[in-house]
Design a protein that fits this description.
about 300 residues, 7-stranded mixed beta sheet, about 15% strand, globular
């Protein structure tokens, strides 16, 4: 499906032609040519992640990194939400063959790992980007959507928006593994052991995001931050970001991602994960999610 939705009132010229991307757009800001806007563009599905989206994120980031005029990348979502996670309907459907939902026995964890590691590395292009990245979160950044947001350098969030990784209850492990490094062990454990969502106010109080504002002020806050960063020479931005990233990576981020990506595959193929998938196939994804979030034991 080619992009047909005009999303961003700030959008200037397309840096990558819209008909070359299926799930997002990359444009140069009308008001400030040093700002690129990477817009997840599946609004009819709350920008849910497809198999193509991670690779397109990487392609857009790499393009912006090779564009000397760009100093900062704003990552945002079209329509009602930033990103509602993976499009589970595509991954739980009966008869849909995918490395991450193998029906064969025994399950091959390394086939699963290769696919999910590629997605993880694609999301991490935002982290490794030479140009700073800012996530603009409204409504939801949940499950895989939180992976995208947390791979960005900075997050500006609507105060009533929600962020979290509910699939840690059943059928998922956050492969990018950023929670501990942003929150510390106590609060990271609270998030991943409960699968709870937190709003922008709590996220800012906990240090998960840089800033939280009311929805009416979200664009202005993002633009102000992006404009401030865009005024700094790109080489300076690159060096300062590399210093901070290096310190986090030396704490074990990349090794944590290897373990988390392996565990993600296990959560989808252990008994509880297979129950979740069968429940989705038999009764619909909403039924499986309602059971998962009800507090009742998984059969």
């Amino acid at each position: 499906m080619a992009n047909t939705v005009e999303i961003d009132p700030y959008a200037g010229r397309a840096l990558i032609p819209h008909d070359e991307l299926q799930t997002l757009t990359l444009t140069q800001d009308k008001q400030n040519s040093r700002i690129a806007r990477l817009t997840l563009n599946r609004p009819e599905r709350l920008n849910a992640i497809t198999s193509e989206m991670p690779g397109e994120i990487r392609r857009a980031v790499e393009f912006a990194n090779h564009c000397d005029a760009i100093h900062v990348i704003v990552v945002q979502g079209a329509g009602a939400a930033f990103c509602a996670g993976y499009d589970i309907g595509l991954f739980t459907a009966t008869g849909h063959d995918h490395p991450c939902q193998q029906e064969s026995v025994p399950w091959d964890p390394m086939i699963d790992y290769r696919t999910m590691r590629q997605h993880t590395d694609d999301f991490m292009s935002l982290w490794h980007s030479h140009k700073p990245t800012i996530a603009r979160i409204h409504k939801y950044a949940i499950a895989g959507g939180s992976d995208i947001a947390l791979c960005c350098d900075l997050i500006v969030m609507e105060d009533t928006a929600r962020i979290g990784y509910m699939p840690t209850r059943v059928w998922g492990c956050p492969t990018t593994a950023h929670w501990t490094y942003r929150l510390g062990p106590e609060r990271a454990k609270r998030m991943v052991l409960t699968g709870e969502l937190v709003d922008g106010v709590k996220a800012e109080r906990w240090g998960l995001v840089s800033e939280t504002v009311a929805r009416a002020q979200l664009d202005a806050a993002v633009d102000a931050l992006a404009t401030s960063i865009s005024a700094v020479p790109s080489g300076m931005l690159m060096m300062q970001k590399m210093i901070v990233n290096e310190s986090i990576e030396r704490q074990g981020l990349l090794a944590s991602q290897t373990m988390a990506t392996l565990f993600d595959g296990i959560t989808r193929h252990n008994p509880e994960g297979m129950w979740f998938r069968r429940q989705s196939q038999a009764h619909g994804f909403k039924s499986a999610v309602q059971w998962r979030d009800s507090g009742k034991p998984i059969p």
